[in-house]
Amino acid sequence: EEEEVKQALVRFMEKLAPGNTVIGQTFGWDVKTDPCSGKWQGVTCDSQSQSVKKIVLDERNLTGVLDALSLCTTSSLLVLSLNDNDIGGHIPNEISNCQNLTHLYLSGNRFSGNLPVSLPQLSNLKRLDFSKNGLSGQVPPNLSKVSGMLSFLVQDNQLSGEIPKFDFSNLAQFNVSNNNFSGAIPDVKGRFNTSSFLGNPGLCGLPLSDLCPLSPPAKKFSTKQLRVYSGYAIIGFFVVVVTVALKLSKKKRHVVDKTGAEEGRELQDNSDNKISGTSSESKTGEFAYRSEYSITSFENGAAASPLVVLSSPVVNGLKFEELLQAPAELVGRGKHGSLYKVMLDGGVTLAVKRIKDCGIQKEDFKMRMERIDQVKHPNVLHASAYYCSKQERLLVYEFQQNGSLFNLLHGSQNSQLFDWGSRIRIAAITAQALAFMHDELHDDGIAHGNLKSSNILLDKDMYPRISEYGLMVVENHQDQSPLLSQTKNSFKHNNPNGGCAYSTFKVDVYGFGVILLEMLTGKLVQNKGFDLANWVNSVVREEWTVEVFDRTLISEGASEERMVNLLQVALKCINPSPDARPCINQVATMINIIKEEEEKSLSFEP
Ligand SMILES: Nc1ncnc2c1ncn2[C@@H]1O[C@H](COP(=O)(O)OP(=O)(O)OP(=O)(O)O)[C@@H](O)[C@H]1O
Q1: How many C-beta neighbours within 10 Å does residue 447 have?
Q2: Distance of alpha carbon 154 from alpha carbon 166, whole angstroms
Q3: In degrees rounded to 5, what are phi and psi of residue 343?
Q4: What is the dihedral of CA 207, 208, 213, 218, to 10 degrees?
Q5: Which of 107, 132, 460, 562 makes an SS bond possible with 156, Cβ 3.0 to 4.6 Å?
Q6: Alpha carbon of 553 to ligand 1 centroid (Å)
Q7: 388 phi and psi, to 5 degrees?
Q8: SS3 sequence of 499-530
């Protein structure tokens, strides 16, 4: 570290331990040595850049104050932990100079006064623990806007005011108990129970049992508001006029084009001729209806092959006509077909997958759908209905507003918010759900068949749901990859190891391994994952293992050991020989162990 940084750190320590004239001896913090020499107690450095990454001085009997100005000269600092000391005074505003800080633990001290107003400027902050101090005043409301925050722990203080509206679906830990907070508790999306809120006499609403008083009558509109609303009314009127005019002209055209077929509309995008082709470039995202397409274009008509509504509460009694006539939007086009977002009248939004060629006979497909419907798991998105004729397959799912794991990893800016803890949690839950499905559908030989990150969707609470289970017959990787040379047969074959040995299921394990690699490296998958697998294998062979990991994980300070452990699981899953790959339930167990270690480390150390 630079001289200036060393001196500033020693100053920071002198303020923490006033009266201690032998800091160099007590803590090894001596300007004559480097903080990364290994002698400075509580300091961890980045092995490559040799800059200070963590300062952990828990339970060191420190009795002074926090000199953030000196501390934050160390701009590389990710973790500061001073839990369970006797440090007093304010938490200084200059703490926001530590711009890279992800973990800030100050629990169990004597900090008093307001929270620094600059706190929300710590835009990388993931975990904050100020519990068990004497802090008062309000929480800066913008703190709730720091995206990617995972822990907010301020229990046992004297904080007051309203609880800001955090993104509760992303928070893993939240506790404001034993303070003076007041007002209505924001919607915590069922994620936290009473223990997070108790001991605040002025708080009301769920999950506490004290109901909030009815809100006062709404204020009258101001002139400014009135002007805005009348503007909306004019625009609305205009839109209605234009829509009616368009509909009338469409109707007219339809009469001219009429083919004699039963009236109806097919879900169709603007490039309808390409819909069953291989092109994937057109993604207009526009509403597009073609009145010249009718239900009868689904082969012999809806009457011959009605929509089968499965045991779903969402689309009870849904009619095929209703589905076809509802407004639809092309969301995307995958290798096997197109996906439409369909808005039903009652406000229900569905995702309708139209499959080009799933390689499964009609009767076989129906049997599969019925069988899969009998096996329910909360982290599997089951089809709500399906339509199946000789050439067409339509699958209806609940639309998942939070998109897919693919979007989360590769969408703009998103990967930075997708921290290590969330990645390991999603990996563990997905593996468990898949293990359940493999187990239940083992004797039927029905695997997922097309497992990839765009088929792992995220529900409203950001929990994963595996979509499109069993829609595809499993493709034989062996035919495509020079890497793979073994078993040609993707169906059941006797294996003395029993259980999960069908190579059909092992293709899912391969797919899951590629998803793990995607989560670890943040890299896009091409060529069915063979490119990514090859690249990872080559880097690991050269022993530059750390190089493979997503830079955002490294800068977040994710545990290298646990990332390497997960990488090892992924490498087992992508073994070229299906027989050498573990079963998914073994994979689930291995990931769960890593997840538990991660959780344990969070409760004991930063
Ligand atoms: N139920 C759903 N809710 C919201 N988005 C969905 C839903 N199902 C799929 N998607 C998203 O729609 C897009 C297109 O999905 P689609 O299944 O057609 O393609 P794919 O998964 O990329 O490829 P494939 O055709 O091989 O399955 C993907 O980004 C996918 O994540």
Answers
A1: 29
A2: 14
A3: -105, 110
A4: -30
A5: 132
A6: 26
A7: -145, 115
A8: CCCCHHHHHHHHHHHHHHHHHHHCCCCCHHHH
Which of the residue ranges 133-137, 292-296, 545-549 has the most confident prediction, judged by mean pLDDT?
133-137
Both tokens of residue 75? Answer: 């701009």
Q: Which residues sit opposite 396 in a β-bridge?
A: 352, 385
Pocket test for ligand 1, best of 380, 454, 463 (most atoms within 8 A of CB): 454
Long-range contacts of 332-338, Cβ-Cβ distance < 8 Å, separation of 24 or more: 332/283, 333/269, 333/279, 333/280, 333/282, 333/283, 334/280, 334/454, 335/280, 336/450, 336/471, 336/472, 337/393, 338/269, 338/275
Could you tell me the distance, in angstroms and rounded to a whole number, from the CA of residue 428 to the centre of ligand 1? 22
- Hey, what amino acid is at 517? L
Q: Tell me: ipTM over 0.95.
A: yes
- In this prediction, residues 354-382 reach a mean pLDDT of 85
Report which of residues 500 and 605 the model is more confident about: 500
Contacts for 489-496 with beta carbons within 8 Å, 24 or more apart? 491/445, 492/445, 495/579
For residue 217, give both structure tokens: 């009558």
Residues 284, 278: contact at Cβ < 8 Å? no
Ligand 1 pocket mutation pick from 280, 282, 404 by most atoms within 8 angstroms of CB: 404
C-alpha angle with apex 570: 569 to 572, nearest 5 degrees? 65
Q: Please name the helix (run of DSSP H) or strand (run of DSSP E) that holds residue 44, with its range, or none.
A: strand 43-45
Residue 92 one-letter amino acid: P
Instruction: Provide the mean pLDDT of the chain.
Output: 77
